[in-house]
Design a protein that fits this description.
- 12% of the residues are buried.
- A four-stranded antiparallel sheet has the order 2-1-3-4, with helices on one face.
- The protein has 108 residues and is of the alpha+beta class.
- Helices cover 24% and strands 27% of the residues.
- It has a domain of 75 residues: P-loop containing nucleotide triphosphate hydrolases (Rossmann fold), CATH 3.40.50.300.
- The longest helix is centred in the last third of the chain and has 10 residues.
């Protein structure tokens, strides 16, 4: 379903993720936990298509970047993170935020 192959991410000359390989099967559920600033959010943003790695390969549902419409992939991945809060308008209704995952509409 999701596979990362030697994925690395660098921001402002700082290594955030280095050579990460991870495979998530079709009936698996995972929880990612770790210390603050350990790269959890960036890892999940790469998996979900909100961020692209500097190197390595990401396969989503058997396809690599360019072989799919990222908007369609995002509809198939349930990604929840407090880091998404800045992508919504202040005062947005909770129901509208949850439903935005189905339509990929994020208000600003």
């Amino acid at each position: 379903m999701i596979e990362l192959r030697d994925v690395s991410l660098i921001r402002n000359d700082k290594i955030i993720l280095e050579n990460i390989s991870w495979k998530v099967g079709p009936v698996e559920n995972w929880v990612v936990f770790g210390r603050n600033s350990s790269g959890k959010t960036m890892l999940l943003e790469i998996v979900s298509g909100f961020t692209y790695p500097c190197s390595g390969e990401v396969l989503r549902f058997g396809k690599t970047h360019g072989e799919y419409d990222v908007r369609e992939i995002k509809k198939r991945i349930g990604y929840v993170s407090s880091s998404l809060k800045d992508r919504f308008r202040s005062g947005e209704k909770l129901l509208d935020i949850v439903l935005s995952g189905f339509s990929l509409r994020i208000s600003r």
